[in-house]
Design goal:
single chain, about 65% helix, about 200 residues, 9 helices, mainly alpha, Four Helix Bundle (Hemerythrin (Met), subunit A)
């Protein structure tokens, strides 16, 4: 950790972050203990992700901190105010991740829906597809920023293609599983997405 990080104090929260002042302070405390400008981007982002700051609105078992979706801006503003590199964002979190998480984890689905043996085969396929989609999104993100505009454009194109593929694959597996459910099971399944929409 650099000397600047060690001596940094919590900056006042801006007006839009004041309703989440405790979270703002928590972000700054964490950054004081962990931010080091000498870390590589790849190493820093892995540390941020491990702490749940990349997507703090995700459940803790999905790499987040279980916070309401509305606080994401506060977290990112806190990073910016501190002078630390902000967590990766962009289309991956805006498009692919919500699509994957709307369906809930396979464990949540198993607990609420109680699938039959035949349905469990489709659920296992959904579990495997979601895991592959997450890996695809991770591997499509370059660890270093490409040096030239053409290279950056190529990286963006590859990233977008990966996100579209991830969404398509997970949605297809989820639709196949959903189509095998009874009306009662579908009602239980639908509560997952409803609960997330209220966060």
């Amino acid at each position: 950790m650099s000397d600047d990080a060690a001596t940094s104090t919590t900056a006042p929260a801006p007006a839009e972050a004041r309703p989440n002042a405790a979270l703002w302070a928590e972000v700054h405390t964490w950054l004081t203990e962990n931010w080091d400008p000498d870390r590589s981007v790849d190493e820093w982002w892995k540390l941020v992700a491990a702490a749940g700051w990349t997507a703090p609105h995700f459940a803790s078992d999905q790499g987040g901190r279980g916070l309401p979706r509305r606080v994401v801006r506060t977290v990112r503003s806190g990073f910016k105010s501190f002078g630390a590199l902000r967590p990766p964002g962009g289309l991956g979190l805006l498009m692919a991740a919500p699509t994957i998480l709307t369906h809930g984890t396979p464990e949540q689905i198993d607990r609420l829906v109680h699938p039959s043996q035949a349905q469990r085969v489709k659920l296992d396929n959904l579990r495997e597809t979601a895991a592959k989609a997450a890996d695809l999104l991770k591997t499509s993100c370059p660890s270093q920023t490409p040096a030239t505009p053409p290279a950056r454009l190529a990286a963006m194109t590859a990233r977008l293609d990966a996100m579209i593929e991830a969404v398509r694959n997970v949605r297809a597996a989820a639709d196949e599983f959903y189509g095998s459910l009874t009306d009662e099971q579908k009602a239980q399944f639908n509560t997952i997405g409803q609960a997330r929409a209220q966060q």
